[in-house]
Amino acid sequence: MVQKYKSPIRVYKYPFELVMKAYEKRFPTCDMIPIFVGSEIIHEEESDDGAVQIIERRCKLNVEAPYLLKKMSGIDYFYCIQRNTLDRRKRTLVIEAWNESFASRIHIKEYCTYYVRYHAIILIVNMIINSNHSNQQ
Predict the structure, then answer these.
(1) Which residue in 33, 53, 83, 135 has a CA-CA distance of 20 to 30 Å to 115?
(2) pLDDT in tens, 104-131
(3) Burial profile 32-69: b = 16 or more Cβ within 10 angstroms, e = fewer
């Protein structure tokens, strides 16, 4: 069964560069986001001119679930991989994330895009959850 979610569009009325600085401050941890326990960079690359930066992180989330469910599943935290592609020339940030935990049973993909249009920053989030992952490939 495939489920799709598309968030409402959010508009930020601040300069793109300021929003990106604020976004970067949440890594490796952020006290203002208690579910976000931490992250580590697993791959990083930058174009020769510094305009494009790709950072791949392994993120650790403390999802709310009953204690018994966490014990039965054998995990205390939910892990996902996140790839951020920042293009300073085009003033875009594309975020792709997918689950590492339970990857053999469920496949979760999230796509977020920050981009500038009409001097405002737009955020769009799309999420696809495929619980029949093994049968779909």
Answers:
(1) 33
(2) 888 889 999 998 886 666 666 666 666 6
(3) eeeebbebeeeeeeeeeeeebeebebebbbeeeeeeee
* φ/ψ (deg, to 5) at 18: -70, -40
Class of domain 2-136: alpha beta
In the three-class reduction of DSSP (H, G, I as helix; E, B as strand; rest coil), residue 11 is classed as strand
String of DSSP letters for 78-124: EEEEEEEEEETTTTEEEEEEEE-TTTTT-EEEEEEEEEEETTEEEEE
Q: How far is 60 from 97, CA to CA, in rounded Å?
A: 12
Residue 93, burial from CB neighbour count under 10 angstroms (0-12, 13-18, 19+): buried
Q: What is the pTM of this model?
A: 0.80
User: Is residue 76 helix, strand or coil?
Assistant: coil
- What residues pair up with 10 in beta bridges, in sequence order? 123
